[in-house]
């Protein structure tokens, strides 16, 4: 077994676990610590170090992968839509490598989830163009063509139906904030996914994020040309994909 290690930084919780990279599965139970507030890069890196310390048998993992909700280009964070603005322009690869005392590679959270679903999850059998959308506090996206990830697509921030920032209108947080019924929310998702379908012509949509466990309440309400399925790894996709992308470097 080739072992990796993935950490997924979310708005409320930071979770990590060793990952069997061949099988795309967690090795044992994941460990979670509430994300510190304010969630500055330094504070979050210290929590990540505590998570790694919880698994003393992972010292031989060559490089740890960390998923964050931001654009990450060559290890440098470039955006901060739902996180502390001090992440912007931080060399997160260098910071995490220093604080953890181990080599670390940081990637976008939706890209990590997308890679997990593409390699070992709901899109495993699809060789064409896969668009993974995570619905949570924000909307994350991953675009994978023939197994190759196009990173940092940020489709959550598209303008749709006159709404300048799609995630403010149709993420899970919008459903909760506005107390929308599943039907009302699905009507917004219909507009959003139809737009993605028009601009991308994907072969498959995969829907991730915590709400994917309730997928039967809203996916059947959508009418699209493209098949749309729930993510397989749900809340572990970020950890699994971070470990895989971390190992690739
Ligand atoms: C961020 C993305 C992130 C997504 C899901 C968006 O607000 O801009 O980088 O992938 O939220 O966390």
UniProtKB/TrEMBL annotation:
Coiled coil: none annotated. InterPro entries: ATPase_NBD, ROK. It comes from the Bacteria. SUPFAM superfamilies: Actin-like ATPase domain. Belongs to the ROK (NagC/XylR) family. NCBIfam families: PolPhglucPhase. This is ROK family protein. It comes from Aeromicrobium duanguangcaii.
């Amino acid at each position: 077994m080739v072992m990796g290690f993935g950490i997924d930084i979310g708005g409320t919780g930071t979770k990590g676990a060793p990952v069997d990279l061949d099988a795309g599965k967690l090795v044992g139970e994941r460990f979670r610590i509430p994300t510190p507030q304010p969630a500055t890069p330094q504070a979050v890196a210290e929590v990540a170090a505590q998570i790694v310390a919880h698994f003393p048998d992972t010292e031989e993992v060559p490089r740890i992968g960390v998923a964050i909700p931001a654009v990450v280009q060559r290890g440098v964070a470039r955006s901060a839509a739902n996180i502390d603005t001090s992440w912007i322009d931080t060399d997160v690869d260098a910071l995490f490598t220093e604080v953890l005392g181990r080599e670390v590679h940081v990637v976008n959270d939706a890209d990590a989830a997308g890679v997990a679903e593409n390699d070992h999850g709901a899109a495993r059998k699809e060789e064409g163009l896969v668009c993974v959308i995570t619905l949570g506090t924000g909307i994350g996206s991953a675009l994978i063509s023939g197994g190759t990830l196009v990173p940092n697509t940020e489709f959550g921030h598209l303008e749709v139906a006159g709404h300048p920032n799609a995630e403010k209108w149709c993420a899970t947080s919008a459903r909760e904030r506005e107390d929308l019924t599943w039907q009302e929310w699905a009507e917004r998702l219909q507009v959003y996914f139809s737009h993605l379908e028009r601009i991308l012509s994907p072969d498959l949509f995969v829907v991730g994020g915590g709400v994917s466990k309730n997928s039967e309440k809203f996916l059947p309400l959508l009418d699209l040309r493209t098949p749309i399925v729930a993510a397989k790894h749900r809340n572990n996709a970020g950890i699994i994909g971070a470990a895989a992308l971390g190992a690739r470097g």
